[in-house]
């Protein structure tokens, strides 16, 4: 059964600026849904290769969570004619939790992308590489290059009808710039995910998942930061090398091939931070700049930190949005034996900022398994081109909003009825809980504000709970939630649909009432229309203190509280 069969497209709706998906598309989807079997034969489920590989990173836990629930809310390629580059479809569909800034940056890339000229060899057709495999045609559609970042939109045509196909990440996967290879491979020939090659090149598209547009057509994007030596070049000779394609069940084409093209520089406003002297806790800010497409931050930190985490967000805690599987790359600048005295570098690649973006960016390093504290906090003002040293108090959690019906409402639920149990509007894990006394159904759930549909989600068998117990969120820590035993109310067992709705946080205005409409997915019968108000939740956890600054020989702080420039 298709994993994305229950998804309407947030990105499609946003690109077309529609309040609702056109009736013709929805009618066609409903016909497809009606033809799907009610149940899938029980069998041991093997995660596809892309999911197994993605589980290697903490950032991909949301991916696994979504796949297991079967509620992937973003299949951004159902409509023909959408931009191949601007949606950066693959990044959103891999992470499943879109951010407003990332979506806006993708649209800017779409507006600035250049269609590939007819005078370039933009397509290649390769034969099947083995028995039961199929021929493949790959075509380059659009390119964006601003002197620092390259985005390439690519279409694949192959006789397949999977929601996605996966790219092999073996020896032939590569990016060549002016004839030089940029992708490192391990001894087994597979792509090395955690490290870059030390040149400043960062692969921003380490995903092997390609999204279906229609039967036999798939799209993806390759994106990367240009190495330091080529920054600002007027043109680049680019070769994108591919290993082959697989479906979830079998190899589709194992023949390696390459797409060659020349990327011509498009002028873009690059705003840089003057980083000289920005150091805290031994952590140095080496480089920081933003273009309309992407934001680049590079830091250096001592190897003595135990499992350090580096990240960045706006000063209000709202996510900027990361590119790439790991949000950047780590380069080891010392031998393992000398790691404690050596230095590491981390390159963060985030979505670009608007020209009039007034919010500052907070970049930090948290020593997770060492001190457990924020060892360094940098506050970046791209409008002014300056940086200040901050504190743990500057690392804000994004606002969280909740609605809970209360235990008595659960107890009063009658057979056959539906009601909203809880809405947890959290940036990292927006959840909706529907309680019911009805039988198990597949549902279409719509969220409306001021007469317009903000987004749509679907439930299925993975989201059903036959014996749920009502409880309310209690201790919210940095946007996540915990519950206490005393919050689990006795006598509240009920049936429940639990939905993970990735686009909910960026689609709703939490200051306005939200109407939730629930329909039987197959028949279209209305089951619920309920309006609720969200309230902002209190974050109870206190900021973690910064590590004490070391003293110099005169007894003064060795780390300055201000940058020199």
Characterize the structure shown.
It is globular, with a radius of gyration of 25 Å. The model is unreliable at 1-83, 86-96, 333-338, 475-481 and 549-565 (pLDDT under 50). By secondary structure, the protein is mainly beta. The protein contains 8 helices and 34 strands.
The parts where pLDDT drops under 50 for at least 5 residues are 1-83, 86-96, 333-338, 475-481, 549-565
The largest pleated sheet is described as:
10 strands, antiparallel
- The total count of strands amounts to 34
Nearest-integer average pLDDT: 76
**Looking at the structure, what is the overall shape?**
globular
Q: How much strand content do the residues show?
A: 35-45%
Helix vs. strand class:
mainly beta
Global Rg: 25 Å
| N-C termini distance | 58 Å
DSSP helical segment count: 8
Query: Which bin fits the share of residues in helices?
Result: 10-25%
Question: What's the SSE blueprint?
Answer:
Blueprint: H1 10-16, H2 23-34, H3 49-54, H4 61-69, H5 89-95, H6 100-112, E1 114-115, E2 123-126, E3 136-145, E4 149-157, E5 164-167, E6 174-177, E7 180-181, E8 202-203, E9 209-214, E10 217-225, E11 235-242, E12 245-246, E13 251-253, E14 257-264, E15 271-272, E16 279-280, E17 283-290, E18 294-302, E19 308-314, E20 328-332, E21 343-351, E22 361-367, E23 374-381, E24 386-389, E25 401-404, H7 407-411, E26 418-425, E27 431-436, E28 443-449, E29 452-458, E30 464-471, E31 488-500, H8 504-507, E32 514-520, E33 526-532, E34 535-536
Antiparallel strand pairs: 1-3, 2-3, 3-4, 4-10, 5-9, 5-12, 6-7, 6-11, 8-10, 9-10, 11-14, 12-13, 15-17, 16-17, 17-18, 18-21, 19-22, 20-21, 22-23, 23-24, 25-26, 25-34, 26-27, 27-31, 28-29, 28-32, 30-31, 32-33
